[in-house]
């Protein structure tokens, strides 16, 4: 069984909101200087975030700001899974989330990667959580559910925008996909929060057209939290990480600006704070 993230308290299990270093790149919006990594951490601490997810090696810097630290990485072989997990454990990470494989693996190759994840989790006693992400072994719902059937103890980092957009869930109708998603939601132990509209990976949350999609994502996140609580212990944390990609990633919609710059349509920092506020409501709504 995957170990939990726990704050050592006797408090009821809860959502803990983490920022992500990648999601704070190229901020603040506008022509002025961009935040350094340390300034990003200061912004998160001042806004009341519980932690920050960043690359392995940043743990000490993150914790120096009074924030919890989660690590992220990529692994394409079993040896890389074990190596990255050892590095994350040495860095004191709460958990390691992984982009696992490229999605073109055979069933046997995919299973070898999953077995390595479970071995690394046991060996280093930290959650190793493959992400539901395009271009990985978990890139579609059908294959992920097949992996669950063979490895029911596997737990995930749920970034459901990849399914919502990559499998165009609004085309079939979101309501029709809910039962297909439940085995994945029931095993989600970490959340990357981003809202897709089924065509774009990342919506501007200030756009009224995003509202119905945000409601669908609230359902996904709430169901994940509700399922996670059924086995959570006192002190356990479910990280909820607003992860809004910068213009250079093409996640954020932008247009050409002067001097080769990009003008970002959305205010990602405001959207990040909005998602933080959403996280606070997930435990209270039916």
User: How many domains comprise the coordinates?
Assistant: 1
Level-2 CATH architecture: Alpha-Beta Barrel
In CATH terms, the superfamily is: Divalent-metal-dependent TIM barrel enzymes
Taking the alpha carbons of the first and last residues, their distance comes to: 28 Å
Question: Overall 3D geometry?
Answer: globular
* Helix-strand makeup class: alpha/beta
In the CATH hierarchy, the third-tier topology is known as: TIM Barrel
Strand % is 15-25%
**What's the SSE pattern?**
EEHEHEHEHEHEHHHEHEEEH
What is the CA-atom radius of gyration, in angstroms? 18 Å
Give the helix proportion (percent range): 25-40%
SSE layout and pairings?
Blueprint: E1 5-6, E2 14-20, H1 37-46, E3 51-55, H2 59-63, E4 68-75, H3 78-90, E5 96-100, H4 107-124, E6 128-130, H5 141-150, E7 156-158, H6 161-166, H7 169-172, H8 174-185, E8 188-193, H9 211-229, E9 236-242, E10 254-256, E11 262-264, H10 268-281
Parallel strand pairs: 2-3, 2-9, 3-4, 4-5, 5-6, 7-8, 8-9
Antiparallel strand pairs: 1-9, 10-11
Helix pairs in contact: 3-4, 5-8, 8-9
């Amino acid at each position: 069984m995957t170990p939990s993230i726990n704050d050592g308290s006797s408090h009821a299990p809860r959502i803990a909101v983490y920022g992500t270093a990648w999601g704070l790149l190229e901020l603040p919006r506008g022509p002025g200087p961009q935040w350094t990594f340390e300034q990003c951490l200061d912004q998160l601490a001042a806004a009341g975030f519980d932690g920050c997810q960043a690359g392995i090696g940043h743990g000490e810097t993150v914790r120096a700001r009074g924030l919890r630290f989660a690590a992220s990485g990529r692994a394409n072989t079993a040896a890389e899974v074990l190596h990255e997990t050892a590095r994350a454990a040495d860095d004191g990470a709460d958990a390691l989330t992984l982009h696992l494989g490229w999605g073109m693996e055979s069933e046997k190759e995919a299973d070898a990667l999953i077995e390595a994840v479970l071995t690394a989790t046991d060996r280093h006693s930290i959650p190793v959580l493959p992400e539901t992400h395009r271009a990985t072994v978990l890139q579609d719902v059908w294959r992920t559910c097949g992996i669950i059937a063979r490895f029911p103890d596997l737990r995930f980092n749920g970034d459901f925008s990849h399914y919502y957009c990559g499998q165009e869930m609004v085309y079939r109708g979101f309501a029709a996909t809910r039962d297909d998603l439940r085995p994945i939601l029931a095993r989600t132990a970490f959340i990357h929060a981003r809202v897709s509209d089924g065509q774009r990976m990342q919506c501007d949350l200030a756009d009224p057209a995003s509202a119905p999609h945000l409601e669908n994502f609230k359902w996904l996140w709430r169901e994940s939290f509700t399922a996670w609580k059924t086995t959570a212990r006192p002190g356990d944390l479910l990280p909820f990480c607003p992860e809004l990609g910068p213009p250079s990633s093409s996640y954020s919609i932008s247009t050409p600006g002067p001097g080769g710059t990009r003008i970002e349509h959305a205010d990602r920092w405001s959207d990040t704070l909005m998602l933080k506020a959403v996280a606070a409501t997930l435990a209270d709504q039916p």
